[in-house]
Amino acid sequence: MVQSLGYLKELPSQTAGPYVHIGCTPNFSGIEGVYDTDLGSGPLYNDKTKGERITVRGHVFDGAQTPLKDALIEIWQADADGFYNSPSETRGTADPNFFGWARCPGDMATGEFVFETIKPGRVPFNDGRLMAPHITFWIVARGINIGLQTRMYFGDEEEANAQDPVLARIEHKVRVPTLIAEREGDTYTFNIRLQGADETVFFDI
Amino acid sequence: MKNTPPETGGFFARDRAMHPPAYTPWYKTTVLRSPQRALISLDGTKSEVTGPVFGHNMLGELDNDLILNYAKPGEMPIGQRIIVHGRVVDERGKGVSGALVEFWQANAGGRYRHKKETYLAPLDPNFGGFGRTIADDDGYYWFKTIKPGPYPWPNGVNDWRPAHIHFSVFGHGFAQRLITQMYFEGDPLIWICPIVKTIPDEEAIKRLIAPLDMAATVPHDMRAYKFDIVLRGRRSTFFENRKEGN
């Protein structure tokens, strides 16, 4: 025998279920008066936030091309200069007027999610190369046993996307466009497809 | 907050053989909601090792008291009064200070306060069924609630969920983000539940079952259940192949 490493094991994940809104966005689900506001609701910026205002919208589709109407989507992103508002950010100080995190349930009738945010700056990969601007997505819902992690990149950042070390790791290049949101005006549309021929790339991060 | 420097290392790889796989057809909704392609592996970058920090100023005073946070003045919900408490730690056993823990559940009869819920058991006019708290410097958290009841759900012809409380937890990095469910010691429904059985490892299932904790029980008031929440561990910075500050 040898010594025990003594590590604990992470708790196993379970589905968020169909009523995730009760706990995470009660006001959205019609239970008002308990929380002032739902955490992560509303625009990610205020009047003082630096950066270009954008809208990110989309749907999460299942394997029958039907939008999920009970998904909860969270995003996490850097500020306009590429700094995260987190104690683990060691390179500099993030914009104090940018929290960087938000959550949005899909609309109960259409399934659409919408984030009013800013376009993030570039953040270095672990070897120092710059990654292309991106927003980290986390998706949970009934029927999803463990939260799905993906990234949204920007369709008008072709040059940066071409150099991105994470996108470069995707062997099947035909799958890269599933992570790239097309721009129209100030709006980027990012549809997430859980299953099928044009399935979104999901990461084990 | 403790006066220790923030940690910046990446997280231990997730043991995906311990977690439920995406495709578990006995839990029917997973059939069309499970990716078929392999996940792309990515050692944590700044985008994953960082995460939001939630402050106490974002929470209300009764947010961790489900017995009172929805009740009319002078009234209380019906059901077994319980305290749920424990620590949020990582795989190294280190307390996750400041972790945001959110929870939601059905009432004592198994009924959720949600417009899409149609179970015939009645709503409790004094029970909302959700709360949240922020773990202290050692990762300790607690809340008061009513023990939820089991409820039937449209999966198999006669499937019933065991009594459970949903948990959503934020650690220090977005890669630690976890949603799971807590079950109660001794519930025979646990071992026949299709959602519980999405977890392939019986030992892992046991880690979601909270034991009755008589030591924390308040005599003539509330029983207690202890539920420790383990998030992913974190590598020390000296394993990183980059210099500080790049």
Automatic annotation (TrEMBL), chain A:
Pfam families: Dioxygenase_C. Its EC number is 1.13.11.3. It is an enzyme of class 1 (oxidoreductase). Belongs to the intradiol ring-cleavage dioxygenase family. Keywords: Dioxygenase, Oxidoreductase. The keyword Oxidoreductase applies. Residues 45-196 form the Intradiol ring-cleavage dioxygenases domain. GO terms for molecular function: protocatechuate 3,4-dioxygenase activity. InterPro entries: Intradiol_dOase_C, Intradiol_dOase_core, Intradiol_RC_Dioxygenase, Protocat_dOase_a. It comes from the Bacteria. This is Protocatechuate 3,4-dioxygenase alpha subunit.
TrEMBL record, chain B:
SUPFAM superfamilies: Aromatic compound dioxygenase. PANTHER family: DIOXYGENASE, PUTATIVE (AFU_ORTHOLOGUE AFUA_2G02910)-RELATED (PTHR33711), INTRADIOL RING-CLEAVAGE DIOXYGENASES DOMAIN-CONTAINING PROTEIN (PTHR33711:SF10). The lineage of its organism: Bacteria, Pseudomonadati, Pseudomonadota, Alphaproteobacteria, Hyphomicrobiales. It comes from Rhizobium halophytocola. Belongs to the intradiol ring-cleavage dioxygenase family. GO terms for molecular function: protocatechuate 3,4-dioxygenase activity. It comes from the Bacteria. The keyword Acyltransferase does not apply. The keyword Oxidoreductase applies. This is Protocatechuate 3,4-dioxygenase beta subunit. InterPro entries: Intradiol_dOase_C, Intradiol_dOase_core, Intradiol_RC_Dioxygenase, PCDO_beta_N, Protocat_dOase_b. Keywords: Dioxygenase, Oxidoreductase. It is an enzyme of class 1 (oxidoreductase). Residues 84-112 form the Intradiol ring-cleavage dioxygenases domain. Its EC number is 1.13.11.3.
